[in-house]
Specification:
The structure is a homotetramer of 448-residue chains. In chain A, helix 6 runs antiparallel to helix 8. In chain A, strands 2-3-7-6 form a 4-stranded antiparallel beta sheet, with no helix packed on it. In chain A, strands 1-4-5 form a 3-stranded mixed beta sheet. The first copy, chain A, contains 14 helices and 7 strands. Chain A has 4 domains: 123 residues, Acyl-CoA dehydrogenase/oxidase, N-terminal domain (Butyryl-Coa Dehydrogenase, subunit A, domain 1); 111 residues, Butyryl-CoA Dehydrogenase, subunit A, domain 2 (Beta Barrel), CATH 2.40.110; 136 residues, Up-down Bundle (Butyryl-CoA Dehydrogenase, subunit A, domain 3), CATH 1.20.140; 39 residues. With 448 residues, chain A is an alpha+beta fold. Chain A is globular and about 90 Å long. At the A-B interface, helix 11, helix 12 and helix 13 of A face helix 11, helix 12 and helix 13 of B. Chains A, B, C, D: It comes from Podospora anserina (strain S / ATCC MYA-4624 / DSM 980 / FGSC 10383). Chains A, B, C, D: GO terms for molecular function: acyl-CoA dehydrogenase activity; flavin adenine dinucleotide binding. Chains A, B, C, D: One of its GO terms (biological process) is fatty acid beta-oxidation using acyl-CoA dehydrogenase. Chains A, B, C, D: This is Acyl-CoA dehydrogenase family.
């Protein structure tokens, strides 16, 4: 909440945002986290899980709107639909949302809708906005972003190969998508689909287009849902979807043919900040559960509470330190994005993208370990959190791809620093002469 | 297989064991791993998962017996029922069994039956053996070991508190158990239960007893099954079981009242070797899947196969090295147990217990990462393997408890090494005098 | 330099500070780093190393003063002698100073003088200030802080036991000190000494006093100098000093008898920020040397430059990320100290104290490894940097002491979070009732 | 000593070797370690360090010979000069030698002489043996192996470029070498030099030759000695040497022109085992010093001895485990080399080469940390040990080169395992048909 904002960024948080943050925090702690249990119960069992729309979520949404919590993610200054928060301010709220499974959706800030709404707000035409952005902003439908494909290395988006062939006023789509997150939800009405419309374009960054496909279009089959370490994430889910001669009006194209890369790149910055801050929140919650456990007076192996044993307090200290460091990295990236735009903030965003999930996984795993068996089971939120966050080391490109890119960028300084060091060495030689002294090298007087 | 046995232990493996190992390897690779898919399909969905006994498993058991693969785990020299292999020899076979979900059960070497059979063979009386050991050895029933309890810190077994009260010729049991692995299987007919029969005994290691409880005894309720990350491990499962006035004949007591600690300690050594070697096998399989992926000609991010990218080959090399090192640690422990007994091998077994799961988790996680999304899903065996092995850092005591114990044991040398170092320093002073020379300390001539 | 200040803190840096920072950066890069070589040559060999006062250092000091770079460390608002920078602002400058061996002293911001000047400015009386603070501020003498003792565990300062016995108008000191850094310098004229003046005081935090001892007082012997991984750090050095009936006027007492703890605690905050930021600077320089090496066109193992090999770019990326994260942690702590005082910033300062040296050691070690043999030798600044920074994991208390303290502090939340989670669980039960639904637990319908 | 040999290898150690091992252990503990102090004092200060030949070393050599400890390194079966030990047996002795600075030389088993003697014994002709092998075996001279060069990436030996030009009956050598270890010793009489004799040979592995060069040959200059962190390692030292028209008789060529690669590859196997086992010994000694410290009754921070604090016992346990695992890896490699030759043992030797130094550095660094300031200083053997062993991650090729090679080798299985997994998948499909069942995929019945 607002009292805990790191001092370095505190003065950039408006009073309104600070107040909203406190409302978010209270809403999450007192309403959403208890609701998570009911949500899971209402999702049910078996095939019903993919038809469910838990009542409690609609109740929470109503409550959220009455508290003024709605669509806070849409950044100030970029969209007329924005409630007026910066990425920094919303980032602080997203941390709290990340502690609960239902909270983000309850305030209409859940992925992938957030990114999809940004795409529509940024690149959609008026008709597209009216048809799809409006109901998304109102929280009456949900959406999915279909990019990743099972048969290629999608971490390099140029490989995406779902066929988009122009046929009169339509495009005809054929191919497969997977990790279509959110496609399991019966309210998911619109797919934003990336495909290859111009496979022979010499510029590999102009071969792709993005098109809007209603989820009930003929020829679309939800082949199955993918599990994440045994979790199905229903009703949201991660779809494996096939397209067989799916016809979509050409007017559904977003921004224009061949502009797919432009769209996916524009979509990523804020989303990475959101993910990172929600992940920070999850790590904070894991740390709290760990604190609860190690102070549990009924659990006293070898006559002492867990907190008094060996490495436990060091785990607590390291977790605190690592979370705090990671949060500063994300917030600094958010500020950079707010003040200089996502392109200028590429380095900072990439750092947050790589650092935060690894940090959170370490913290959560310590919490699991401190719980023993309960930690891996349904009796704590820890195992599920771990599994969800483990995917963030893969989603939007695996860590290794980002690290290679970051390494290449940093390495661009190579020539310049080599020149600087060479100049420093030359200057040193000059100074040695000036002071009329020689370097004393050990062993330089040895004679054999 | 036998051609890959580390050279340091090769000469201790009999020809018979080497041949059997090759049969096991072929059986696992060609029969069991393909059967895993069918097994999962036959387990079914929903509540049926806890009633299932997949047909393919019985077919595999028949095949295994025809190949001479049955009960190999029961160590030579200790039990007349043993097929004659050492812990080392069976350990090498267990590595192969660990690559498949069904393999261990197919050759009647699945936990927890193995440890339970050892308990009965070692401590059971003739009637107990006839009633329970015989059908377990024949693979017609299964069993569970009920020790861990939800409300106490079970890593310190003295905390186990299920009440066992003598009432005439019976004991009456009241309390809760969880992580009762295997209790989900409809064929699980016998529970070996640890409880507190003498809570006031001054020796906290004599308060516990172990008793045999048929799983259909009145008063027992399977409250629910625990999940491991999102997996239910059906039909095997991990039971949360309550005992309400459960009456068992006093003749079901194993070894005698107050001897529970003796039994659980005798049970652990070989089981830890088995778990460790199966885990090595899982790590090997994960490495193979990773090799498959990084050489997949259809997956070429940024124009190169994965094996040509950045850190990938280093991951392969480290995985190879870490698995090989861990295997040597386990096999050395097995030899020590074979030649000097489990008590003498305590240190070596504890090292294997701690080292192997951490090693395997690292290897498997690298494989997951190299697969991208497929790695966390049902499309590879990796995510499930990871979750199963993650529990081994907790089961039979968390790593930290073992490390503290190992640290204390090693620290017993403290006094002796301090004396040795003191003697070395004294001798050095003596020699300085003898050679009439003084230590040259830097700065010792500074005058101010 | 100012263009690289992290955006989160940029707006707190005054124009004057930004300009000064740029001057510092240029002075370090163009004057100080080249001078390091000459400095080492002028220090000479053998015993002369402890008599040396390299001429180039005085020339640099003159240059520095002419550039307006002098005593920037003394924080604004606390001392009338301050040039007016905040801890944040000076921290950014300290980063640059940390790249060169001579830079800090050239601008009169070298440890331990900085901390000692703070002690005198904060706690010294007018006479003490006139006699010692004045020449220290002018850079004409140097100083040492004598706390650590060889025969006790000094990480717990209550163990400090150098005897300080009142004898009329004097105190008589007997005992040993080591790690008296700076005592090797012939210009080191004043020791600030902590000793035990009241061993029987019931409050263990009131047994210690701090007294000023001129380094040429009778009875003081520099026994020897301690090496750091083979380096003598001459002429600065780390003294091992004995006190035999050393008489000092009682007027040399700082602040009053029994107030030693108050003084050492007041001394630590800013010093830890300085150390941390200088260490960040060293890590940056190590990364630059690494970039130079991996782009060296003459070094092409297996036909490719190092930057094209395996893990190298990932090392670069991780180093960049880890340094950037660590810097934010330190700067956030500096801001907290600036705005709320060192006591409020305890947590943040401790985090910086622990995180930064470990980060820098990792970065430097990667650089060493990328250089091969040159990395461990006198041909790069890397090995020496590593050794210096390795001591920071021990100085002012080893990491583990700080982590335990940080863990204990964080753990204070234990009770509160346990209550919160309990309330959340109770609310969930209430909601389940309200929505008339039960948790669906797997396996809860099993009947045996 | 013999009682501590890991059980897995114990039966391969002959009685003679076991007895010798016990003698070595006693000799090291009681004679050599105390002598280290005297040795360092006798080496002296300043330039004299490179002229010193400490008397105590000759006394130890005499003692060693009288105990039958001499040249144990020369492996049985390969050389008529061998005292008859296997690589395994000598490896166990080398562990003890690695605890002391002087021990290896005291028993004439010091690098680089050992490798050089192997080269001469294996590839030298009779004249070469008489002139150089004989006095080396007798311990009356020492030697150096000059391969690495400052101006190229020597980790790829094809880059070695010291010019060797045939001129009548002589070769003329021009170029520079560094990291010529041992060249500082005044008794170092012979250099084994690798150079490029045939730069235009199409086979890059045939361009190099190895030639014997007496260290007093005209044209050779010891330019300087390299330091390792701040240590000079005098009198041994690491030379930076220049060759200016150095003329050597063509008869000094070893094995023949163009056979340099053959020689350096033949030289490496046993040497890597020796280094690894000595490093294990150093790690054991570090652990012993740590045990001494954490049980020191005079060092009680916060009222408890160090062993009772937080993570300390876990450090002890992990150190014990990691050393034990690493030792098994080396001994298994030694056995493979003994029984199947160095070529067959390439993988195992490379694993030892990479694993052991990293393990030892971790253990030693923990010991340093537990000592506080004393750990980095001259008062413990730890800092020096760390620095020496740090070079082993670079010498004979940096870890990363070995890991890449190991990764490539392991990756050769890629095709085979891909085929196996494909076969397993095909078999699974076949079995699904046979059992007339389909895979149950979650969400496969979703209709929209």
């Amino acid at each position: 909440m607002s009292a805990q904002i790191p001092i370095a960024v505190r003065d950039r948080v408006s009073d309104k945002a600070a107040k909203t943050l406190d409302i978010v925090a209270k809403f999450v702690d007192e309403e959403c986290i208890p609701a998570d249990t009911v949500f899971e119960a209402q999702v049910g069992v078996g095939e019903a899980r993919w038809q469910a729309h838990p009542k409690i979520l609609e109740d929470l949404k109503e409550k959220a709107r009455s508290l003024g919590l709605w669509n806070m993610f849409l950044p100030k200054g970029h969209y007329k639909e924005s409630p007026g928060f910066t990425n920094l301010e919303y980032g602080l709220m997203a941390e709290w949302l990340g502690k609960s499974r239902v909270a983000s959706e309850a305030v209409n800030c859940a992925a992938p809708d957030t990114g999809n709404m940004e795409v529509l707000a940024k690149y959609g035409n008026d008709a597209q906005k009216a048809q799809w952005l409006k109901p998304l902003m109102d929280g009456v439908i949900r959406s999915a972003f279909l990019m990743t494909e099972p048969q290629v290395a999608s971490s390099d988006a140029r490989n995406i190969e779902l066929k988009m062939v122009r046929d009169g006023d339509h495009y005809v789509l054929n191919g497969s998508k997977w990790w279509s997150s959110g496609a399991g939800d019966p309210r998911c009405k619109i797919y934003i689909v990336m495909g290859k419309s111009d496979p022979n374009n010499k510029d590999p960054y102009k071969q792709q287009s993005v098109i809007l496909v209603p989820s009930d279009t003929k020829g679309i089959t939800i082949h199955r849902m993918l599990s994440v370490y045994g979790y199905d994430d229903a009703p949201h889910g991660h779809g494996h979807i096939t397209f067989h001669n799916v016809r979509v009006p050409a007017t559904n194209l977003v921004l224009g043919e061949g502009r797919g890369f432009e769209i996916i790149q524009g979509r990523l910055g804020p989303g990475r900040i959101h993910h990172a801050m929600r992940t920070i929140g999850a790590a904070e919650r894991a740390l709290e559960w760990m604190l609860m456990r190690i102070n549990d007076p009924t659990k006293t192996p070898f006559g002492k509470q867990l907190r008094e044993h060996g490495v436990i307090l060091e785990w607590v200290a390291k977790s605190r330190l690592e979370i705090d460091a990671a949060r500063l990295v994300v917030l600094n990236a958010a500020i950079k994005m707010d003040e200089q735009g996502p392109k200028a903030a590429l380095k900072e965003i990439a750092q947050a993208k790589v650092l935060v999930p690894q940090t959170a996984l370490t913290v959560i795993d310590r919490a699991v370990q401190s719980f023993g068996g309960a930690g891996v089971s349904q009796d704590t939120p820890l195992a599920n959190m771990w599994a969800q966050i483990r995917t963030l080391r893969l989603a939007d490109g695996p860590d290794e791809v980002h690290l290679q890119q970051m390494g290449r960028n940093e390495n661009r300084r190579g020539k310049e620093v080599a020149a600087k060091i060479a100049a420093q060495k030359a200057k040193a030689e000059e100074l040695l002469k000036k002071y009329n002294i020689t370097r004393s090298e050990i062993g330089s007087n040895i004679k054999r």
